């Protein structure tokens, strides 16, 4: 299997990178706000648990991947790779939103998916969960990726086919996987392929870590961003997984050290989509130190070096192309996650790239975006249980 390793080096003045904790943000940066503060939008769904990716089906219904609230204290509690104690549960779900003349109807249509989060009674209980991260729906059929953020204990750097955190922590094999199922069925979804197992087998960069967070259809298969492994994967079947792009760390100034003292910063890809030109467009959250204005959207075309498509963004979590060729991006924290403020924004990048402008600001911990007609739909309060929402943003100027 041939793998392209792409080292992206941020130029001076251009955007750079960020990090995912379990699935969204560091534990110190979860939001307590429950409503957007400015812009032309309205709340169309609420009461969601750590809502992440959002998609639109052919009939215009919206589907939201909820990462859930984890589980109670049990034998399936452990310290995850982000350093937070989490407990496993079956609280992750998929919610359907349908519009009518009377407004929006909200219903959880898939439940019982695996979730990891701090348990009840713990600091940050139910926040920043790992669970369903992204979903696609065709009729009654759905595909979803389940976030993970779990590594193996005492594993040295390098490929390790024996790495098995599922058995080690008593976790569902759906965790860290691309799964498929039927809406309304009482049967559990089946695993199409395990992205985490692929990472542990190949581990092309650094120690084993996997956290698949995005999902789009692509050329007879799927594109998936694994924010733990820092890789973009193309999946055609269980045994046909190909790394389209991998991203190495870059050295940046440590903000807590004297000038010249550097620290490695991870790329942390959060979304990968095909553009109208057929090229791959990848957003990055970045790892520590999560610099404000430090996220770039990269254009990757076969046979060419990656090029910055839009710079000066901060902590980008999702992308969506509009029919006019403009690109919409979500910033989970406009000030940068190191600030502890997860007030973010929906941004618009003009056709052919360039400077992004704010479409809707003041959004509390926004994460996923889907476009339909003249509106964008954004998940907010994405790292909190019970207060997650979807907001409808008017794109009409």
From TrEMBL:
Keywords: Signal
Signal sequence segment: 1-29
Keyword check for Signal: yes
Superkingdom classification of source: Bacteria
Record flagged with keyword Signal: yes
Name of the protein in question: ScyD/ScyE family protein
């Amino acid at each position: 299997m041939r793998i392209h390793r792409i080292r992206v080096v941020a130029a001076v003045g251009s955007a750079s990178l960020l990090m995912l904790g379990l699935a969204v943000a560091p534990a110190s940066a979860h939001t307590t706000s429950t409503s957007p503060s400015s812009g032309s939008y309205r709340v169309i769904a609420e009461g969601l648990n750590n809502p992440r990716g959002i998609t639109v089906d052919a009939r215009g219904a919206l589907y939201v991947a909820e990462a859930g609230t984890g589980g109670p204290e049990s034998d399936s509690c452990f310290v995850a790779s982000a350093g937070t104690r989490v407990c496993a549960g079956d609280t992750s779900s998929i919610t359907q939103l349908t519009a009518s003349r009377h407004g929006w109807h909200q219903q959880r249509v898939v439940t019982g998916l695996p979730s990891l989060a701090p348990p009840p009674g713990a600091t940050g209980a139910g926040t920043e969960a790992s669970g369903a991260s992204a979903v696609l729906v065709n009729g009654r059929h759905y595909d979803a990726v389940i976030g993970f953020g779990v590594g193996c204990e005492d594993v040295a750097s390098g490929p390790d086919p024996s790495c098995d955190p599922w058995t080690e922590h008593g976790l569902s094999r759906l965790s860290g996987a691309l799964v498929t199922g039927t809406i309304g069925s009482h049967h559990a979804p089946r695993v199409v392929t395990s992205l985490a197992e692929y990472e542990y087998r190949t581990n092309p960069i650094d120690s084993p870590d996997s956290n698949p967070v995005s999902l789009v259809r692509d050329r007879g298969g799927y594109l998936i961003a694994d924010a733990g492994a820092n890789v973009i994967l193309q999946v055609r079947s269980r045994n046909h997984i190909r790394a389209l792009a991998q991203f190495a760390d870059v050295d940046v100034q440590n903000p807590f050290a004297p000038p010249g003292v550097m620290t490695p910063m991870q790329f942390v890809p959060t979304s990968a989509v095909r553009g109208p030109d057929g090229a791959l467009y990848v957003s990055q959250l970045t790892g520590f130190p999560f610099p404000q204005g430090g996220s770039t959207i990269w254009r990757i075309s076969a046979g060419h070096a990656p090029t910055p498509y839009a710079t000066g963004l901060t902590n980008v979590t999702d992308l969506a192309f509009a029919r006019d060729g403009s690109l919409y991006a979500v910033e989970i924290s406009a000030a940068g996650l190191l600030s502890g403020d997860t007030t973010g924004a929906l941004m618009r990048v003009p056709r052919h790239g360039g400077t992004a402008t704010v479409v809707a600001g003041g959004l509390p911990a926004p994460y996923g975006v889907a476009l339909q007609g003249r509106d964008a739909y954004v998940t907010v309060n994405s790292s909190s249980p019970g207060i997650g929402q979807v907001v409808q943003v008017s794109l009409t100027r």
